[in-house]
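Tutorial handout. Part one gives the primary structure; part two gives the three-dimensional structure as tokens.
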Amino acid sequence: MIETGLGGRLDATNVLVPALTVITDISMDHTEILGETLAEIASEKAGIIKPGVLNLSGRLPTEAARVIDSTCRKRNAPLQALLPREFVTDDRRLSLDFQSDGLSLKRVTPSLLGVHQLKNCALTLKAVAALRSAGFSIPKTSIRKGLRTVEFPGRFQVLGNGSISPRFVLDVCHNRAGAVAFADTFSKRFPGRGSIVLLGLVKRKEHQGIVDALAPIADSFHLVPLRSKRSCDAAELVKALDWHGRPVTRSARFDTALSRLLKSASSDDIISVVGSHYLVGEFLSKRVAE
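Part two.
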């Protein structure tokens, strides 16, 4: 399985001739490169669609779905969209039942947390069903094991148990849609709890939308710069955004902010490190080094 790095049309991975192409979701992200509308972004992602090769798509916004459908028609590529009738989710137990294309599985529980991951899981199962129909040998036991044991660092990654030090939750949510999914998952995983939010953002993102989504689960915000020239100026963010009445502090370095939080937080606290791959990557690098 090969994942595109950005978009699709001009991505280096697009030189491949695949057995199947999958478009999981389309939202407003990387707009400075991919376009300012969902249709423009969908057009870039549709670049992976190949003549005669089956394309699967998730539950896309109408504007984006029209572009994918049109591209598949022009390239004579079969298109199958994930349908609501093909899966049923249990949002409390974070499991799902799936039945489509000759594949039927009950009570599938993926290791990746979140209701949004259940939808991703359903699309994955649809892709597996299509490959099985095409002659690939993929036993059900392997499907269950793969979904049960898959690891994806930085996607609602929970570290620690809160016994002697605070829990950490890491998530690279870097747009509004990702922040909404993170906050929803947090409220289900830790009902009634709030979080100390350690936040780093890059330029040209939906900054206010991200803060709006995180505010309901945030006890406080702590802004840090990123190790990237694309990093936002924390001082400007403090002044420019509505923080919904939550306390906001900023630090000149990530290490400084983390050290302060570890000194002031109790073992019962939950510290969320969110907003960027750069920030989560720095945290994980520091943890490995120690």
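Part three, for discussion. Residues 122 and 251 are 41 Å apart (CA to CA). The chain has ten helices and twelve strands.
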